[in-house]
Amino acid sequence: MVSEPDFPLAGLELKTSPLKRLKSKKLLVAKERLVLNIINYYDVVDEEFEESSFYYKNKHLLLVFYLYESKQSALEYVIELVADWEYPEEDLEIIRKDWNTIKTKIEEGKAHELSEGDTSYLGACTKSANSRKLRKQPNNDKPAKPRAFSLKQGYVNHIIATLGNKDGRKYGRLFESKEVAVKETIESLVLKRLKDYYGKSTSQIERDHNLDLNQKSKSYYHNLTKAILGIGTNETIQEFEKADIKFKTVRIEDNKIIEQAISFPAFDFYEVLLQDWEESRFKDIVEGKFLFVFFKKDGNDYYLEKAMFWNMGFNDRLECERIYNETKAVIRSGEIVWNIKKQKNGIIYQNNFPKIRNSKVCHVRPHAIDREDKLPLPVPDKMTGMKAYTKQCFWLDKNYVLREIYKSI
DNA sequence: GCATGATCATGC
DNA sequence: GCATGATCATGC
User: Fold this and answer.
1) A169: which nucleotide lies closest, measuring CA to C1'?
2) What is the pTM of this model?
3) What is the gyration radius of the CA atoms in chain A, in angstroms?
4) Which protein residue lies nearest to nucleotide B9, measured between its Cα and the C1' atom?
5) pLDDT digit string, tens, across residues A320-334
6) Ramachandran angles phi, psi of A25, nearest 5°
7) A55, A162, A167, A304: most buried, per Cβ within 10 A?
8) What is the pLDDT of residue A401?
9) What does A293-319 look like in DSSP terms, one character per residue?
10) Protein residues in reach of strand B (CB < 7 A)
11) Nearest-angstrom CA–CA distance, A31 and A67
């Protein structure tokens, strides 16, 4: 018995979903993934995608987005956006593959091993309220957590950006057509394109693509990699946004070390103070998938050595949560600066944010145009009275990246 | 040699 | 003027 959409005659499924407003940019983004129907482990293995309960129920969504405010009751929520959504055909191909990946894992008796990291746009998410009541699964005696099909947070963000059409970014696509999307997954397509350039130097890659990039730009390797993927310097990769994939390039030096840590966007001090880990953007980042592309030094040039997709393990995400909460505590205390030092290039303010020595996974350091590029502090600094401080961001430790990612392939 | 703080090129 | 994806520079 296949369950009907909410409005069967129109074939429409009604879904409400929360938005959050980023404190720094006023931009509305998805607060969470969009949870769809529960996965019946015994039924899904006998279904084909077109006739599946997932597709039958959710092929056409009526979406109602409301602004989530933690201190409000549900009655006070303001509806920000209402729209109907059907998947573009390239997206549908990726969703079909995601669905098949989930189905295959269940057929193999691995429902208990399902993870959101398995797939790109369509995930199998746990339902936290009842995830302790395990369910039986086919082909394995081991019980599994109940899971539902869901659209990834990045995909929901893309829906919002498409409907709102005001994020001002230009998008480039990896999949030019439905035909390519039928044959490849995002990951297989990206790795295939990059593998063609393994062992090639940056200058050779530039020649092959008729590029004339400024090597002094800090985005040089990023732009070079985008060119290999057929994406312009000024474009955002649409599929990466939808699948919550962050893309980082890393240089490996002569002595096989990484010299620099990995940065993320600067954070807003108010945002970190007000947003708990569960709703923080740093959590969104570390729960998503990464593409790491490694360039290795050879003489005076670097060559593309290897690339891989990667997800952060559970314990390391807990460590990121710890560092986030320490950062929040420093902001809340107003004890930002602990020492003022005179140096050749001016006055240095040494701060109490979590340092490299405090964690093997991540830390906090400046991320600004210069030291005057500041954001307001919710609590003025007790030592200096400063009401604003140089912008900071979370960084991934370079030895962590070397150990956990580079050396794992 | 590394930790920490400072800073750069680009695109919009 | 600012966000991003990073690299640079100084001093211990």
Assistant:
1) B12
2) 0.88
3) 23
4) A217
5) 999 999 999 999 999
6) -115, -5
7) A304
8) 96
9) EEEEEETTEEEEEEEEEEE--HHHHHH
10) A 168, 170, 214, 216-219, 233-234, 257, 261, 345-351, 353, 355-357, 363, 365-371, 373, 390
11) 9
